[in-house]
Amino acid sequence: xxxxxxxxxxxxxxxxxxxxxxxxxxxxxxDNIGDVIMHHISDSHEIELPFIGAVHLPRxxxxxxxxxxxxxxxxxxxxxxxxxIVLSLAAxxxxxxxxxxxxxxxxxxxxxxxRNEIAIPNMxxxxxxxxxxxxxxxxxxxxxxxxxxxxxxxxxxTGNVSVxxxxxxxxxxxxxxxxxxxxxxxxxLKHFTGGVHPAMWIIMIPVEFLGLFTKPFALCIxxxxxxxxxxxxxxxLISLIFIFGQGxxxxxxxxxxxxxxxxxxxFVNLLEIFVALLQAYIFTLxxxxxxxxxxxxxxxxxxxxxxx
Length: 308
Hints:
Layout lengths: L11 E2 L4 H8 L4 H12 L4 E4 L3 E4 L4 E2 L2 E2 L4 H21 L10 H22 L1 H24 L12 H30 L10 H45 L5 H57 L1
Antiparallel strand pairs: 1-3, 2-3, 4-5
Helix pairs in contact: 1-2, 2-7, 3-4, 3-5, 4-5, 4-8, 5-8, 6-7, 6-8, 7-8
Protein backbone atom coordinates (compact mmCIF):
# COMPACT_ATOMS: atom_id res chain seq x y z
CA UNK A 1 0.00 0.00 0.00
CA UNK A 2 1.39 3.38 -0.94
CA UNK A 3 2.30 5.82 1.80
CA UNK A 4 0.17 8.96 2.14
CA UNK A 5 1.54 11.97 0.22
CA UNK A 6 4.31 13.70 2.09
CA UNK A 7 4.61 10.94 4.70
CA UNK A 8 7.87 9.00 4.98
CA UNK A 9 7.71 5.34 6.00
CA UNK A 10 10.00 6.19 8.90
CA UNK A 11 8.42 9.55 9.76
CA UNK A 12 7.99 10.42 13.41
CA UNK A 13 4.95 12.22 14.75
CA UNK A 14 3.73 13.13 18.22
CA UNK A 15 2.00 10.34 20.10
CA UNK A 16 -1.52 9.90 18.81
CA UNK A 17 -3.59 10.85 21.81
CA UNK A 18 -6.82 11.41 19.93
CA UNK A 19 -8.44 8.29 21.35
CA UNK A 20 -7.40 9.06 24.91
CA UNK A 21 -8.40 12.69 24.58
CA UNK A 22 -11.79 11.76 23.22
CA UNK A 23 -12.29 9.35 26.08
CA UNK A 24 -11.27 11.95 28.65
CA UNK A 25 -13.64 14.51 27.16
CA UNK A 26 -16.46 12.07 27.85
CA UNK A 27 -18.08 12.44 24.44
CA UNK A 28 -19.68 9.13 23.64
CA UNK A 29 -18.62 7.56 26.97
CA UNK A 30 -18.23 3.81 26.63
CA ASP A 31 -17.88 3.98 22.82
CA ASN A 32 -14.72 6.09 23.12
CA ILE A 33 -13.38 3.87 25.90
CA GLY A 34 -13.89 0.93 23.58
CA ASP A 35 -11.90 2.72 20.86
CA VAL A 36 -9.03 3.32 23.30
CA ILE A 37 -8.97 -0.36 24.33
CA MET A 38 -9.06 -1.56 20.73
CA HIS A 39 -6.33 0.93 19.81
CA HIS A 40 -4.01 -0.55 22.45
CA ILE A 41 -4.60 -4.26 21.73
CA SER A 42 -4.77 -4.08 17.93
CA ASP A 43 -1.84 -4.35 15.55
CA SER A 44 -0.86 -1.17 13.68
CA HIS A 45 1.67 0.32 11.28
CA GLU A 46 3.15 2.61 13.92
CA ILE A 47 4.83 2.06 17.24
CA GLU A 48 4.86 4.52 20.11
CA LEU A 49 8.21 5.20 21.78
CA PRO A 50 8.81 7.16 24.99
CA PHE A 51 9.95 10.79 24.46
CA ILE A 52 9.77 10.32 20.68
CA GLY A 53 6.16 9.66 19.80
CA ALA A 54 4.61 7.50 17.14
CA VAL A 55 7.10 6.07 14.63
CA HIS A 56 5.52 5.01 11.35
CA LEU A 57 6.79 1.60 10.23
CA PRO A 58 7.71 0.86 6.60
CA ARG A 59 5.08 -0.58 4.30
CA UNK A 60 5.75 -2.60 1.17
CA UNK A 61 4.12 -5.24 -0.98
CA UNK A 62 5.61 -8.06 -3.03
CA UNK A 63 3.57 -9.76 -5.77
CA UNK A 64 0.43 -8.19 -4.32
CA UNK A 65 1.10 -9.58 -0.82
CA UNK A 66 1.46 -7.14 2.05
CA UNK A 67 4.83 -7.72 3.79
CA UNK A 68 4.64 -4.53 5.87
CA UNK A 69 6.37 -4.52 9.22
CA UNK A 70 3.78 -3.94 11.93
CA UNK A 71 3.99 -3.31 15.65
CA UNK A 72 3.59 -7.00 16.47
CA UNK A 73 6.25 -7.97 13.90
CA UNK A 74 8.64 -5.57 15.64
CA UNK A 75 7.83 -7.20 18.98
CA UNK A 76 8.61 -10.66 17.54
CA UNK A 77 11.91 -9.36 16.19
CA UNK A 78 12.75 -7.92 19.59
CA UNK A 79 11.86 -11.23 21.25
CA UNK A 80 14.03 -13.17 18.80
CA UNK A 81 17.03 -10.86 19.30
CA UNK A 82 16.63 -11.00 23.09
CA UNK A 83 16.49 -14.80 23.04
CA UNK A 84 19.57 -15.08 20.81
CA ILE A 85 21.56 -12.82 23.12
CA VAL A 86 20.32 -14.16 26.45
CA LEU A 87 20.43 -17.87 25.57
CA SER A 88 23.83 -17.52 23.89
CA LEU A 89 25.23 -15.96 27.04
CA ALA A 90 23.60 -18.66 29.17
CA ALA A 91 25.04 -21.43 26.97
CA UNK A 92 28.62 -20.17 27.26
CA UNK A 93 30.85 -22.22 29.53
CA UNK A 94 34.51 -21.78 30.13
CA UNK A 95 35.01 -25.56 30.43
CA UNK A 96 32.84 -28.33 28.93
CA UNK A 97 32.36 -30.09 32.28
CA UNK A 98 31.80 -26.93 34.28
CA UNK A 99 28.53 -26.85 36.22
CA UNK A 100 26.51 -23.75 35.27
CA UNK A 101 25.60 -21.28 37.96
CA UNK A 102 23.28 -18.31 38.29
CA UNK A 103 21.18 -17.44 35.25
CA UNK A 104 22.72 -20.24 33.13
CA UNK A 105 21.66 -22.78 35.78
CA UNK A 106 18.10 -21.41 35.68
CA UNK A 107 17.94 -21.76 31.90
CA UNK A 108 19.35 -25.28 32.07
CA UNK A 109 16.73 -26.20 34.68
CA UNK A 110 13.95 -25.06 32.37
CA UNK A 111 15.42 -26.97 29.41
CA UNK A 112 15.75 -30.13 31.52
CA UNK A 113 12.15 -29.70 32.71
CA UNK A 114 10.92 -29.47 29.11
CA ARG A 115 12.96 -32.54 28.14
CA ASN A 116 12.26 -34.73 31.20
CA GLU A 117 8.72 -33.65 32.17
CA ILE A 118 7.14 -32.65 28.84
CA ALA A 119 8.92 -34.17 25.84
CA ILE A 120 9.96 -37.67 26.97
CA PRO A 121 6.82 -38.61 29.00
CA ASN A 122 4.47 -37.55 26.18
CA MET A 123 6.49 -38.48 23.09
CA UNK A 124 8.76 -41.32 24.16
CA UNK A 125 12.51 -41.03 24.68
CA UNK A 126 13.71 -41.15 21.06
CA UNK A 127 11.05 -38.84 19.62
CA UNK A 128 11.03 -36.62 22.69
CA UNK A 129 14.76 -35.91 22.58
CA UNK A 130 14.47 -35.19 18.85
CA UNK A 131 11.76 -32.58 19.46
CA UNK A 132 13.31 -30.92 22.53
CA UNK A 133 14.83 -28.06 20.45
CA UNK A 134 11.45 -27.28 18.89
CA UNK A 135 9.60 -27.42 22.21
CA UNK A 136 12.23 -25.23 23.91
CA UNK A 137 11.99 -22.71 21.07
CA UNK A 138 8.21 -22.63 21.41
CA UNK A 139 8.33 -22.15 25.17
CA UNK A 140 10.97 -19.42 25.29
CA UNK A 141 9.59 -17.51 22.29
CA UNK A 142 5.98 -17.50 23.54
CA UNK A 143 7.08 -16.63 27.09
CA UNK A 144 9.24 -13.72 25.85
CA UNK A 145 6.45 -12.36 23.62
CA UNK A 146 3.98 -12.65 26.49
CA UNK A 147 6.27 -10.83 28.94
CA UNK A 148 7.15 -8.10 26.42
CA UNK A 149 3.45 -7.26 26.29
CA UNK A 150 3.60 -6.24 29.95
CA UNK A 151 6.31 -3.64 29.28
CA UNK A 152 5.01 -0.06 28.86
CA UNK A 153 4.98 1.14 25.21
CA UNK A 154 5.39 -2.48 24.01
CA UNK A 155 2.74 -4.82 22.59
CA UNK A 156 1.77 -8.47 22.96
CA UNK A 157 2.52 -10.24 19.69
CA THR A 158 0.81 -13.39 21.00
CA GLY A 159 -2.37 -11.32 21.33
CA ASN A 160 -2.50 -11.36 17.52
CA VAL A 161 -4.42 -14.32 16.12
CA SER A 162 -2.17 -14.40 13.04
CA VAL A 163 0.87 -15.01 15.26
CA UNK A 164 -0.77 -17.76 17.31
CA UNK A 165 -2.14 -19.34 14.10
CA UNK A 166 1.39 -19.44 12.65
CA UNK A 167 2.73 -21.11 15.82
CA UNK A 168 -0.14 -23.61 15.83
CA UNK A 169 0.48 -24.32 12.13
CA UNK A 170 4.06 -25.30 12.91
CA UNK A 171 2.83 -27.80 15.50
CA UNK A 172 0.25 -29.07 12.99
CA UNK A 173 2.97 -29.67 10.36
CA UNK A 174 5.25 -31.47 12.84
CA UNK A 175 2.30 -33.55 14.10
CA UNK A 176 1.40 -34.80 10.63
CA UNK A 177 5.05 -35.37 9.71
CA UNK A 178 5.62 -37.41 12.90
CA UNK A 179 2.51 -39.47 12.18
CA UNK A 180 3.51 -40.21 8.58
CA UNK A 181 7.09 -41.06 9.56
CA UNK A 182 5.97 -43.40 12.35
CA UNK A 183 3.24 -45.28 10.44
CA UNK A 184 4.03 -44.67 6.79
CA UNK A 185 1.64 -42.91 4.45
CA UNK A 186 -0.68 -45.94 4.30
CA UNK A 187 -0.90 -46.28 8.06
CA UNK A 188 -1.38 -42.54 8.40
CA LEU A 189 -4.33 -42.58 5.98
CA LYS A 190 -5.73 -45.73 7.61
CA HIS A 191 -6.32 -43.94 10.92
CA PHE A 192 -8.96 -41.78 9.22
CA THR A 193 -11.27 -44.82 9.23
CA GLY A 194 -11.01 -45.08 13.03
CA GLY A 195 -10.80 -48.90 12.79
CA VAL A 196 -14.58 -49.24 12.35
CA HIS A 197 -16.62 -51.23 9.79
CA PRO A 198 -16.42 -49.81 6.24
CA ALA A 199 -20.10 -48.96 6.43
CA MET A 200 -19.21 -46.32 9.03
CA TRP A 201 -16.41 -44.71 7.02
CA ILE A 202 -18.79 -42.13 5.56
CA ILE A 203 -19.12 -40.78 9.12
CA MET A 204 -15.69 -41.52 10.55
CA ILE A 205 -13.55 -40.10 7.75
CA PRO A 206 -15.06 -36.56 7.88
CA VAL A 207 -14.95 -36.63 11.69
CA GLU A 208 -11.31 -37.72 11.79
CA PHE A 209 -10.40 -35.20 9.09
CA LEU A 210 -11.97 -32.35 11.07
CA GLY A 211 -10.16 -33.65 14.15
CA LEU A 212 -6.85 -32.88 12.45
CA PHE A 213 -7.63 -29.17 12.53
CA THR A 214 -9.44 -28.85 15.85
CA LYS A 215 -6.21 -29.43 17.80
CA PRO A 216 -4.15 -26.61 16.21
CA PHE A 217 -7.27 -24.42 16.24
CA ALA A 218 -7.55 -24.92 20.01
CA LEU A 219 -3.85 -24.06 20.41
CA CYS A 220 -4.29 -20.88 18.36
CA ILE A 221 -7.43 -19.56 20.07
CA UNK A 222 -6.39 -20.51 23.61
CA UNK A 223 -3.17 -18.49 23.51
CA UNK A 224 -4.69 -15.56 21.61
CA UNK A 225 -7.75 -15.26 23.86
CA UNK A 226 -5.84 -15.53 27.13
CA UNK A 227 -3.26 -12.91 26.21
CA UNK A 228 -5.88 -10.51 24.84
CA UNK A 229 -8.31 -10.89 27.72
CA UNK A 230 -5.80 -9.80 30.36
CA UNK A 231 -5.01 -6.53 28.57
CA UNK A 232 -8.71 -5.79 28.02
CA UNK A 233 -9.41 -6.29 31.73
CA UNK A 234 -6.56 -3.97 32.80
CA UNK A 235 -7.53 -1.23 30.33
CA UNK A 236 -11.18 -1.54 31.33
CA LEU A 237 -10.33 -1.14 35.02
CA ILE A 238 -8.21 1.96 34.32
CA SER A 239 -10.98 3.37 32.12
CA LEU A 240 -13.35 3.30 35.10
CA ILE A 241 -11.55 6.42 36.39
CA PHE A 242 -12.51 8.38 33.26
CA ILE A 243 -16.01 6.88 33.08
CA PHE A 244 -16.85 7.83 36.69
CA GLY A 245 -15.07 11.19 36.31
CA GLN A 246 -17.06 11.87 33.15
CA GLY A 247 -14.01 13.31 31.43
CA UNK A 248 -13.43 15.96 34.12
CA UNK A 249 -17.08 16.94 34.65
CA UNK A 250 -17.17 15.01 37.92
CA UNK A 251 -13.50 14.75 39.04
CA UNK A 252 -14.19 13.67 42.62
CA UNK A 253 -16.01 10.58 41.43
CA UNK A 254 -12.96 9.77 39.31
CA UNK A 255 -10.62 10.34 42.27
CA UNK A 256 -12.86 8.18 44.45
CA UNK A 257 -12.77 5.15 42.18
CA UNK A 258 -9.07 5.58 41.28
CA UNK A 259 -7.55 3.64 44.26
CA UNK A 260 -9.85 0.68 43.65
CA UNK A 261 -9.27 0.77 39.89
CA UNK A 262 -5.48 1.02 40.18
CA UNK A 263 -5.36 -1.65 42.89
CA UNK A 264 -7.28 -4.18 40.81
CA UNK A 265 -5.21 -3.25 37.74
CA UNK A 266 -1.97 -3.99 39.61
CA PHE A 267 -3.40 -7.30 40.82
CA VAL A 268 -4.41 -8.32 37.28
CA ASN A 269 -1.02 -7.18 35.97
CA LEU A 270 0.75 -9.44 38.48
CA LEU A 271 -1.65 -12.23 37.53
CA GLU A 272 -0.70 -11.72 33.88
CA ILE A 273 2.93 -12.55 34.70
CA PHE A 274 1.75 -15.94 35.91
CA VAL A 275 -0.57 -16.29 32.89
CA ALA A 276 2.33 -15.50 30.53
CA LEU A 277 4.32 -18.39 32.00
CA LEU A 278 1.31 -20.71 32.19
CA GLN A 279 0.25 -20.16 28.57
CA ALA A 280 3.77 -20.80 27.28
CA TYR A 281 3.82 -24.04 29.29
CA ILE A 282 0.35 -25.13 28.09
CA PHE A 283 1.15 -24.45 24.43
CA THR A 284 4.39 -26.46 24.71
CA LEU A 285 2.73 -29.31 26.62
CA UNK A 286 -0.18 -29.62 24.16
CA UNK A 287 2.22 -29.53 21.20
CA UNK A 288 4.17 -32.44 22.73
CA UNK A 289 0.93 -34.34 23.40
CA UNK A 290 -0.37 -33.91 19.85
CA UNK A 291 2.93 -34.90 18.21
CA UNK A 292 3.40 -37.84 20.57
CA UNK A 293 -0.14 -39.09 20.05
CA UNK A 294 0.21 -38.92 16.26
CA UNK A 295 3.46 -40.89 16.38
CA UNK A 296 2.54 -43.54 18.95
CA UNK A 297 -1.20 -44.18 18.60
CA UNK A 298 -0.58 -46.69 15.81
CA UNK A 299 2.05 -48.55 17.85
CA UNK A 300 -0.36 -48.77 20.75
CA UNK A 301 -3.04 -50.24 18.50
CA UNK A 302 -0.56 -52.74 17.10
CA UNK A 303 0.50 -53.66 20.63
CA UNK A 304 -3.07 -54.18 21.69
CA UNK A 305 -3.77 -56.36 18.64
CA UNK A 306 -0.67 -58.46 19.32
CA UNK A 307 -1.68 -58.81 22.97
CA UNK A 308 -5.13 -60.08 21.98
